[in-house]
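Sequence only, no structure available. Ideas?
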Amino acid sequence: MAIPSKQIGWSNESNLLWQVAKELEYLTKVTANVTTGLTDTQLRATPVPISPRPNTTGANGTTPYKLISLATTNANVIKASGGNLYSVIAIGLSSTVRYLKLYNKASAPTVGTDVPVMTIPVPANTQGAGISIPFSMGVNFPLGIAMAITSGFADNDTGAILAGEVIINLTYA
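Reply:
I predicted one. C-alpha cells follow.
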C-alpha cells in the first residue's frame, strides 16, 4: 500500500511521517507473508496483495448453538475448548424471569457448585420476551464455553426450569 508522498504533503525521505508510512507498509507485508521465506530486503521491495480469508464455519466465522430448555437446569457444554462468545439471544416464554449462566469450563457445569462468569436475566412473558446481546469483539472463555439455565440468580442456585420456558441461541468461535 504505497502512499504517494505528493498526495499527503511529504516530499523527502527524512520526514518522520514518510518513514512511519514506509514501516507500516513493511509490517503489512510481513504479516501477509510470514511463511514465504522472503528476506527482509525482499519484503521491503516486493508488493504483497492482502486478501481476506474465506469464511468456512458460518456467518463471520462463528458457529451457531441452539437450545430449547428441558425440565432441568439445562447444564450443557457449548465448546469443549477455549473460544470466544460473539452473541447471545435468549427468549423467555415463562411468566417468571429465568437466568442464563455462562461458565468458563470445558465440560457441563455442576450447577450450584461451579461459579458462572456471567449471569444474564431472561425476560419473562408467556407471549415471548427476549434479550439480544452482541459481543463484537467476542468474550473470551479460555477453558471452554458452558451454560445452564436456572430459576434463581444466585451463583449457587440449583432451581430447574420447565421444558420450553427458554430458547437460547448463541454464536461462538
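The chain has two helices and eight strands.
Hope that gets you unstuck.
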